[in-house]
Design brief:
Blueprint: E1 4-5, E2 11-14, E3 19-22, H1 25-41, E4 48-53, E5 64-71, E6 80-87, H2 96-108, E7 113-117, E8 122-128, E9 131-135
Parallel strand pairs: 6-7
Antiparallel strand pairs: 1-2, 2-3, 4-5, 5-6, 7-8, 8-9
């Protein structure tokens, strides 16, 4: 459920970043995805990176991934990227430009799963033998 704060400017509460943010059309889609990941996929909030700055992976790269989900590695290995989510405003086309954008992110941060959504349409992919193949839904986390 999206929580809005009365204000001159529409805002929405982000339960991961623990702050109020501008309720832009893309942010509303992002917050819906966060709710889906927390409640349906059961991702712990501490493993969600929202507007994750890629400079943490590649110094000098200031692009931001909408959502990056991390998963603890086996045998006390460090966290590994599990899911990359690219959000667009509701109804915005999910065409070649989005594909190029996601490809740039994946070149830095190879994730097991990928999700692209505009709030009306969503696509899901799983990394299988060095290529992403479409799947119908994301698996439960854990």
């Amino acid at each position: 459920m999206l929580v809005r704060r009365p204000s001159r400017f529409r805002q929405i509460y982000d339960p991961v970043r623990l702050k109020w943010v501008a309720a832009t059309p893309e942010e509303e889609v992002r917050q819906s995805v966060i709710t889906y990941l927390l409640k349906k996929v059961r991702v712990p909030p501490r493993l969600l990176g929202v507007e994750f700055c890629l400079s943490q992976i590649e110094p000098g790269n200031f692009r931001r991934a909408d959502i990056l989900v991390w998963k603890p590695g086996a045998d006390n290995r460090p966290l590994a990227p599990w899911l990359l989510v690219e959000c667009k405003a509701q109804g915005e086309p999910l065409g070649d430009e989005v594909t190029r954008q996601v490809s740039r992110y994946l070149s830095l941060c190879r994730c097991r799963y990928l999700m692209v959504t505009n709030g009306l349409e969503s696509g899901y992919w799983e990394l299988w033998e060095q290529e992403y193949r479409p799947i119908s839904v994301l698996p439960l986390f854990g």
